[in-house]
Amino acid sequence: MSAAALETVRSGHVSGLHAVTSALAEMRGSMLRAGGDDTRGMRLSVLTLVVACADRASAEKAGEVVERMASRHPTRAIVLVGDPDGPARIEADLSLSCSATGGQQVCMELVRLEVGGESARHLRSVVGPLLLPDVPAHLWVVGAAPLTQALSPDALELCERIIVDSDAYPDPAATLAAVALVTAAVGPLPAIGDLAWRRIRGWRELAGRVFDTPELRGFVQGIEDVEVRFAGTRPSAQALLFGGWLRSRLDRPGFRLPSITPIPDGGEDEGGELLGVVLNASHRDRRARIEISGDATRRTTAVSVEGAMRTTSATWTVGVERPGIVALVGAELEEQGPDPMYAAALVAAVGEAR
Amino acid sequence: MELGTRAPAQAQANPLREGLRLERTPAPCALVIFGASGDLTRRKLVPALYALSVQGLLPAGFTVVGAARSEGTDEGFRASLRQAVERHGRLPVTDLQWASFAEGVRYARVDLDDPEGLAPLRTVLEEVDLERGTAGNRVYYLSIPPSGIANVARRLGEAGMTTPPAQSGFVRLIVEKPFGRDLTTSRALDEDLHRHFDESQIYRIDHYLGKETVQNLHGFRFANGIFEPVWSRQYIDHVQITVAESIGVEGRGGYYEESGALRDIVQNHIMQLVALVGMEAPADFSPETVRDEKVKLLRAIRPIHPDDALDTTVRGQYGAGWIDGEQVPGYREEPGVSDASLRETFVALKLDIDNWRWAGTPFYLRTGKRLPRRATEVAIQFRRVPHSPFGGQLASPAGAPVAGAIDPNLLVVRIQPDEGITLRFNAKVPGQAMRIRTVNMDFLYGSSFLTESPEAYERLLLDCMLGDATLFAREDEVEEAWRLCTAVLDGWRAHPPSVDELPDYEAGTWGPKAAHDLLARDGRSWRRP
Ligand SMILES: NC(=O)c1ccc[n+]([C@@H]2O[C@H](COP(=O)([O-])OP(=O)(O)OC[C@H]3O[C@@H](n4cnc5c(N)ncnc54)[C@H](OP(=O)(O)O)[C@@H]3O)[C@@H](O)[C@H]2O)c1
Q1: Is B53 a member of any domain?
Q2: ipTM score of the complex?
Q3: Cβ–Cβ < 8 Å for B265, B451
């Protein structure tokens, strides 16, 4: 992603919600007036991103992430820290940054909002008036904010998409179960996006690609057992979702339902990242072992097929870039509507974990 | 070119004014404000007059006469007006400019209970005619409660103060909203006024029409060739008009108990917006042509029979809740409001327009107090693409928002607070796959190019002095709007809600569930303004 130089057009601090709304209106005015002759008088926006943070430190970091997404996602971002037990206050730092490339101007409005006191228990009334009309609102729940809050009725009513990271919680299995419950209850909207699910996308792609080759296609129906290695000590959401995904995809007539074993590497790394996947499969009288392993920069797929007559093996390696938080959240912002693959994987993962 | 303004040049065209900002300035005149001590005078009228004066738009000799029922002096009146302008005006007050404005400010005590009670006012006006050359030209502004209007008109008539001085002179009457409470009372008021004033002298003000952005609706529709061809049932699925207020009744509970959202907003402002959005292109922008077209549209609205009122309308009342991070009381807890009040603070309704342009394309209207944000907007929702080559569902059977559906195009004309025009369209997400994303394109439009646009009252006061009634409601417009609203009121009266059905929406939400259902039944949903 080429990040065009971002230029801060305006910034300032205001207190109280009315001041925030009028500052936003002024920013809109200056956004429309900024830019060259060909970009003046118009602005684009694709969504409002509400970023719910547990504290100021995580808000700081989230704000940086948001700023780095600016050129690709012309949004209004509201980075929110609520402190219901603190003193009553609404404080906001606002900034408008624009980047102009090739006659096109893309702007991002960033509101860092701190809400203290009773108002913080009624965030819908604070955030609602700040949402851009007619485009979706996405809520990104940063870190392990309590799910009851992240998926509260207010949030569900206000937002079209709620982005969580089920691996950020101490008990990923319970977290997935809670997410599954909400997903089942709310219907298609709002959609839930899960960063843990997005992190295993590369692994899903590699696993899927193996069976694209005609010689191996037959084995996909005969996957018998699967080992999923992951960083950490208890099954991570990524590991559970990967297993759930396989089960949900293979749960169809004529297919075997594999047994799935998550294998912790025992390391201190609590990120829950996948480290490797081994699939054992049979097809007619042949057996195949498929192992995908990797680190932060490359992944290797090794396939060996054992038949009555001969054994063949092949290995291929691809360079990967483990997606950073900017890419992960950015990809979520481009989604519209729920991902049925995720919903199915979630249900299967939760069933499995029980 | 100025749209929606001047009638084709009349009588005495002045060749030296051609090409200047205004093609005419008003003839010198006196503006008499009845209700000079009132809230509207202080907050809107006098600040508007001062701004006109500073901009050099008022004629030389222009004079404001405050007519009120209590004793007062010119000096005292001037001082109170200066305070009002300093507090509510959009332009700073300088001593020099104030002095020139204040020269033309007078005060007259009137006794409206006495047939001779206008004598002091007449004396002041005669002095003004002599001293300032206003030549008997008058605008009477009735900024008084509706109950007093007929009486003042009568007193003016009895005192012989309603006849224009000479061929070219004028006497005009500006009447504020609400214009009656229903069809019967508004007709009665018309009759009362017509006893002393000709319809051409009467200017019924609806300050929405003075807003730059509302006039932009004309400009947008009739100065651009590309929108008009799609401005019809063929391409438009439906129209939504929202007038949302986040405030409550602001201490005017007593007044609101008598009126309610339908009378306060729908009968005047919203019906005007409906007319502007739906009307045919007028042949020219003269007052009668424009208003003829508006009335034609209003007449094409399918009448709502009182028995059907509950099917096509929704009334609601707010309870306590949270707005802008603050706790607010429910309507029944407001001062001056009965604790068993059935008064509506929210209305939603569906209109069908039975003409070739709009048949089958409904207009959904809603207004309410204590909604999450303040916004007045007209949204034109176009039809969905007939087929999506990109997969994904197109329509929702139950009216619920559909995940992954391609959103139809939407054109939003935002009237306040952030005026402008937004077009929502769909674009491809950059990348390998063909994925579609909704993008809002937000335009500055019309007045937003100016640094500061004039207040509605500035425009309207000036138009009235110029004799341009285009932006004022004519008798038949008001009557048509009342015809519709009165039927709804009759239907509501026949089927009152029970005391414990209300309140039915929490302050800070978008109204009662029934409003959602009204659109869901048609497979549609309200947008979030
Ligand atoms: N305020 C607003 O924002 C607003 C908005 C839209 C429309 N309006 C309409 O504008 C008009 C004036 O509004 P407002 O808020 O200024 O009203 P207001 O403050 O209640 O009254 C205005 C003045 O009218 C005079 N008055 C009262 N009763 C009268 C009577 N029976 N006969 C003659 N004069 C009488 C009083 O002045 P004196 O005692 O000095 O004579 C009073 O100060 C009303 O028709 C209202 O519906 C107001």
Answers
A1: yes
A2: 0.83
A3: no
CATH of the domain at B369: 3.30.360.10
Whether the pLDDT of residue B395 is over 60: the answer is no
Which chain A residue lies closest to B510 (C-alpha atoms)?
Answer: A128
The β-bridge partners of A287 are A282, A306
Looking at the structure, do residues B218 and B117 belong to the same domain, yes or no?
Answer: no
CA pair distance A47, B440, nearest whole angstrom: 9
Q: Answer yes or no: is pLDDT of B9 > 90.
A: no
Residues B442, A29: C-beta atoms closer than 8 Å: no
Q: CATH no. for residue B51? A: 3.40.50.720
CB atoms B528 and A133 under 8 Å: yes
B151 lies in the same domain as B228: no
Task: Determine if ligand 1 sits within 6 Å of the CB of residue B68.
Answer: yes
Torsion of CA A60, A62, A65, A66, to 10 degrees: -100
Least confident of A301-310, B191-200, B373-382: A301-310
Mean pLDDT (whole number) for B364-380: 96
Residue B405 has pLDDT above 80, yes or no: no
Tell how far CA A274 is from the center of its chain.
16
- Which phi and psi (to 5°) does residue B511 adopt? 100, 180
Please report how the helices B74-88 and B95-102 are oriented relative to each other, as an axis angle in degrees rounded to 10. Answer: 130
DSSP string covering B330-361, please?
A: -GGGSTT--TT----SEEEEEE-B-STTTTT-
Give the gap in angstroms from C-alpha A126 to the nearest C-alpha of chain B.
Answer: 5
pLDDT, one tens digit per residue, over B54-101 is 988 999 899 999 999 999 999 999 999 999 999 999 889 999 999 999
Which pLDDT score, from 0 to 100, does residue B401 have?
Answer: 45
Q: What was the pLDDT predicted at B404?
A: 55
B291 vs B241, B278, B356, B482, CA distance in Å? 20, 13, 19, 16
- Pair (B161, B288) in one structural domain: no
Q: Find the B509 Cα to ligand 1 centroid distance in Å.
A: 32
- Does the CB atom of residue B254 touch ligand 1 within 6 A? no
Burial class (CB in 10 A: 0-12, 13-18, 19+), A8: exposed
Cα separation of the two ends of chain B: 32
Range of the domain at B78: 25-176
* Centre of ligand 1 from the C-alpha of residue B65, in Å: 16
Q: What average pLDDT does this structure show over B139-153? A: 96
Whole-model pTM: value is 0.89
**In angstroms, what separates the C-alpha of B302 from chain A's closest C-alpha?**
29
3-state secondary structure of B29: coil
Sheet holding B346-351, edge to edge: A42-45, B436-443, B420-428, B410-416, B375-382, B236-244, B363-368, B346-351, B313-316
Give the model confidence (pLDDT) of B472-509 as tens digits: 999 999 999 999 999 999 999 999 999 999 999 999 99
Q: How many domains does chain B have?
A: 2
Across the interface, of A28, A334, A337, the residue whose CB is closest to B404 is: A337
Instruction: Give CA–CA dist B195/B152, Å, rounded.
Output: 12
Mapping DSSP to helix (H, G, I), strand (E, B) and coil, where does residue A162 land?
strand
**Dist. CA B61–CA B137, nearest whole Å:** 11
pLDDT number for residue B443: 78
Active site residue B269: yes
Question: What parts of chain A have a pLDDT lower than 50?
Answer: 1-3
Which position has the token pair 């999450």? B372
The reported pLDDT for the residue numbered A39 is 55
Give the H/E segment covering residue B174: strand B171-175
Going from the C-alpha of B306 to that of each of A1, B83, B313, B362, B484, the distances in angstroms are: 61, 48, 10, 19, 10
Q: Which helix (H) or strand (E) holds A193?
A: strand A191-194
Q: Tell if the CB–CB gap between A334 and B402 is shorter than 8 Å.
A: no
Largest distance between two CA atoms of chain B: 85
- Kindly report the backbone phi and psi dihedral angles of residue B205, in degrees, each rounded to the nearest multiple of 5, phi listed first: -90, 135
